[in-house]
């Protein structure tokens, strides 16, 4: 095959090249030869591109150096590469039933695979424990889907692992001990050697560490990451041959050298020693490695960043608009180090307002295809922890030349908007500019000015009129969004406070005053203008979308909200009645009628419905519960090359433009803007009015949006960035965003556990958040800490979960536990393995049906022990609870007999 053009090529071209190859498959060396690739960088780009396409399921990796079209895999002969160690496809597999997706395991051994490209949970395939076939959490797998069962649930077996997502696993190291071998992995054959127990509870099997692999090799031997100073320090500290078991109970990061298969555990070697899991700062290091967050910049990336930061600004001054000399300010938190947005509000002669939003022009310094760009794409975004951050870009740029520091010239991309007295955007202009920030302000300072603090107003007397105009305009923009139907969930978020020694001393509610909200309003307006302008150019772009909720989730929310006397406003929900083939098959030859199921049809839900309900529950005791349930009913926002609007913001066109220092999609949008401006596109945009038709409320708007997406796809050849590439970037960035959110959330929960470890036995006022078949979850007042009250701890009666109204009810006394109910609980124990707090109810003197907490036996474990349902009595004495256990077991046996 002849060489066809230079590299890099688009994903679409590469897929076509594989498809045209003999047998619709191509090898790595073949592609290198046909594409005429030179050095290592181009070859690395090719491998990364192939990995992205494989992750989406558009190609299948059939061995170490060969890729194939999914339709070209012979079902009877396809086998996994030797290093993947998974079972081959059975003869019963067919091409039509093969689906690629990501495996999400449960700690009980089963899993689910969501097919690539799907955002609907109903599409997930259930994978039984015996059909996992050596796959691990997060792996990209090929599933052989089974015929649907009677219940209609989709299921299947993992036929092959396409891409391993766990090259490293973080866990606790243990030396080989005969007494503990079988306890760790009861179903496994007897094994010999050291092992780690993964800290991810979804990985239920240990990883064996062969002799000689216990201590890390030199940093240069690893291919998965560059070891930082903290890891090397830990290695030097723990490499002490005088200790008998120096690594016992220590958190380590392990490189998997042999992946698991049926009946054979994974093997690995210690890559990094992190330290004792409870030591200061080790929790952050564990989370970083558990979620595979790139956290150390390679040397070539740092070199490129330094070289790029040295680009002279003077070379750009002649072709950019000069905003220097204006009272442009940055407004950020006290601890912020990178300032990527600056604002200015000025009155216009017409009585309208001019809003200037200036964003650091990161695209000038980070060029496509460079090592710096590839590293930024790999990270996808910056990750923020309570006491540190992992930046997307090296500090030379993120806190240096790309940060809008006061009194320093900086390059920006600007959105200049004209806003009328009702907050409507009458027009806007996109341009490249140069600014010099007049002042670096903090949210606290701005809030003090708005609150009328005399000393702060005196300190910034020359800028007080500017801030007052900002506040006035922000109120108008916010009122416009409310008219349009934008949903504003003002839910409290926990903030962890540290003392000067670095120890955590409090968890408080985050403050969100108008100093924060005015910046939010300005950024929302700029993002919307940029999205609308790019869409008007009819070229492929990347959007921030938020799709309409699934009908089933709306129905579930309506059922729960009705218990509190609320509704989104539907007089009736449209449903359709269906009969499954299994139901019809069960009644064949009988007089019975097949069972009919009601499922929700398309529901005409709008953002205004959510907005009105949010206003109705504001300040009510049930606000926390219902707002949480409303959030659960909505889909997650994500990035996409197809514009379908942003439901929660009630915006027909929205993107991310304002944070290119910490989000890769914003950097892509900046590249699109600059390319379009350089090509001569008109930088001026028209009005964006709140009464414009929206995609969820107008069929005409939906059709016009579909037409616009189709036209943009047709212009793909002339587009600055091909649509296929934008699709890949959108998918990757959505995944890295979820990864960062999961890591941040898990660390916060970890910090909460550590904060509560000295408060076992204390009692708290709480509210019931949700009820499940194994207990109910409560949230402590003012602490934003959640925990479980297990059903088995309620010993005064036999309690069961009632699915119809999601309540827990006592069989004899009729006592009910439901969402929103106030309860008095004490912290019973801490389950460190699952990182969960367990509470018990405190008896109430004025309630004769109140539950008396179960008393501890003499052998009860410590608060951090393994006894699942022990709780201290108020006197501190310990008594046997054998009788209680006997009664519970007898009752359970009787119940089981009845069920049989």
Keywords, separated by commas or semicolons:
five-stranded antiparallel sheet; 22 helices; 37 strands; 30% helix; disordered C terminus
Distance between the termini: 68 Å
Q: Which overall shape is indicated by the principal axes computed on the Cα atoms?
A: globular
Count of alpha and pi helical runs: 22
Please give the share of residues in helix.
25-40%
Low-confidence stretches: 1-5, 75-95, 179-190, 219-228, 853-900
Query: What gyration radius follows from the Cα positions, in whole Å?
Result: 30 Å
DSSP strand (E) fraction?
A: 15-25%
Let me know the number of strands. 37
Largest sheet: 6 strands, mixed
For this entry, what is the oligomeric state of its chains?
single chain
Query: What's the rounded overall pLDDT mean?
Result: 82
- How does the helix and strand content classify structurally? alpha+beta
Describe this structure in words.
- With 900 residues, the protein is α+β, with helices and mostly antiparallel strands.
- The chain contains 22 helices and 37 strands.
- The strands form 11 sheets. Strands 14, 16, 17, 20, 21 and 29 form a 6-stranded mixed sheet that branches. It has a 5-stranded antiparallel sheet with strand order 6-5-4-7-8.
- Strand 16 and strand 17 form a beta hairpin.
- Helix 6 runs antiparallel to helix 21, helix 13 packs across helix 14 and helix 15 runs antiparallel to helix 18.
- It starts with 10 loop residues before the first helix and ends with a helix.
